[in-house]
Amino acid sequence: MIGTLSKFKSALRPIGHVNKILARNVSHFTYQPDEKSPNVDGERTKMNMFTAINNAMDIALATDDSTLLFGEDVAFGGVFRCSLNLKDKYGADRVFNTPLCEQGIAGFAIGVAATGAKAIAEIQFADYIFPAFDQIVNEAAKYRYRSGNMFDCGSLTIRAPFGAVGHGALYHSQSPEAYFAHTPGLKVIVPRGPIKAKGLLLAAINDKNPCIILEPKTLYRSAVEEVPVASYECELGKADVLMNGNDVTLIGWGTQVHVLREVAERAKNELKVKCELIDLVSILPWDRETVCNSVKKTGRVIIAHEAPLTNGFGAELAASIQEDCFLHLEAPIARVCGWDTPFPHVFEPFYLPDRLRCFEAIKKIVKY
Amino acid sequence: MLSRSFNLMLKKAWISHVKMIMPENYDPIPIYRVMDPEGNILHESQDPKLNKDTIHKCFRDMVLLNALDKILYESQRQGRISFYMTNFGEEASHIGSACALSSEDLVYAQYREAGVLLWRGFTISQFIDQCYGNYDDDGKGKQMPVHYGSKKLNFMTISSPLSTQIPQAVGSAYVFKRRANNNRCVIVYFGDGAASEGDTHAAMNFAATLECPVIFFCRNNGYAISTPVKEQYRGDGISSRGNGYGMAALRCDGTDLLAVYNATKVAREYCLKNNKPIILEAMQYRLGHHSTSDDSSAYRPAEELEIWNTVEHPINKLKNYMLKKGWFDEIAENDYVKDIRKKIMIQNQQAEKKQKYDWREMFTDVYDDVPDNLQKQMKQMEDHLKKHKNEYPLQNFKQS
What we know:
heterodimer; A: alpha/beta; Rossmann fold; 7-stranded mixed sheet; 5-stranded mixed sheet; 18% strand; globular; B: alpha/beta; 2 domains; 5-stranded parallel sheet; two-stranded antiparallel ribbon; Transketolase_C (chain A); 2-oxoisovalerate dehydrogenase subunit beta, mitochondrial (chain A); transit peptide (chain A)
């Protein structure tokens, strides 16, 4: 994990011809800043996603003295720079490194939260969250339920970089959201850019339930937009309709939203097909109403995610849509996903549910 | 010096001959004892001189725990409760440690520490109601029997996955440390088997590096279900691991209430004064079966139990100490046993008759509120029950 680090950092800072070559794989999407800014007064400033996350944690640490931020290598600023300068600002007892042990990080974080203090725990890559799976699934998620609400760890937030990054191969690319979506008691959230990342992270930190926020790491530097400087929250459990259309509903989250946006533009121009684009935002609990209202209008739906197809979260969406929108469906629900393989290194361009695979899915679904 | 050292933490320099450090080169950690099995104090300086009332409460709590165990064990055999785990042979480690703690200290337990709750004031009815999962169970009937918890008594709710509570205890201790004028530590109990889990390693290393006031209290009772300790580890028990983590360690006789008391008191003072963790290993013997789902005669001979059931029995030892002090009144104690047995029996009958929570409680406390999907599922079940109410045990559940 440590060995790959410098490679990542250089890849995310495209300078010189070597990095241009590396960057070729990264550009399977084009980042689109949010058109609608959140309704927050005051100054706005350009932030990329890691600075927006840094800003959110800065606010959380400033607002509540009980808030702690910890994980592997967070003290010097984090391997993705998300915690930059926070140790200097808030002290080494509030922003600190832990030993290299994910089950320990999660267990420690639950114990912090069980006292009522706010815990922001970082797992360095979502690929390495599995050693903490037991603590998250058996403990964090069930803490309130099993004690009859005597105890809870609601002030726990786990952050983890996730998703494809161009060359992350098996253990720096995974999208494990579906594993957690099967766990009552958790909230699982994925931002699509800086504005959402800040608002969702603050909402997660203040939410009274354990939250996992999966941050698409390929957006840390590449996604830049005007982010309100003040504190604000984005509602958990609420999907965003980013483009309106009557012909096909496209559903994605994280980086995939940007792939789908591009595809929707192309479908409008080349096929005269108007897509309705939905960023699901919250994987658990998810916004069934927004999704089903859209599908009832369009009659066609395509779900796209980077994670493998079989038992991916698309399966839950498809089953629920089929149940609620049966009489409105004009075509079978389509899923454009990662293949049912581990996430490969050199084959990444063939693995991802990219623009072309999504565009082909639109062509096919409108002709059905 | 630093330039010649491989690691900032290693202080010792070089040797010029290969030297393996063998397990037998380490001195085993001795077992601290205060009294012999006859109740004689071995060194007068070590007598904690607990007053008569305190010793009496210790003794009676051990006896009460024992009586509760016997009756609830039988209740399970009769099919009245689904499951039970006794505390036989380990009563002194519960009561002795609980007595040395402040009631504000936070307890994380495994499942065989009911005596700690008893010491703190958990009532006979609270124990029994939890085992029946009835309307008076604070846990609302959601967990298996013996998974107790009490917010009021600073006793975190027990969960079945072994060792998960250990790194959690460290996190809580870290929060306590940051509070001004902190006078609370955390104690986390676990067995010798649970000490093999990865979470135990995680917790000990985190506690040492993050300097947390936590007592790791290991009940080393010789067995993890059927697995004897020689198949669990090959080192000098659990307390010897303290050195590897850079942590203080103590080992005591877990059947000697006074030794457990003294060791816990010292451990607590050390934690709070230094903001550091300590391992405290109580050596004892699991006299009962692992649980009601286990028959321990399948893996250990009856003769093995004999000594632990008599001379090395924690209740006998404290009784001998009390006799020496002239504090033991045979008649009063017999009356006490009769009295609590009656109370337990009555409570057992009452708990059985109490209704369970409304079945809708199944959907609450998953989150802080009930989200749409769960409200929808609750409604589905309501509609289903309207059609099939006679096929479900609704009469045993409150109706709202």
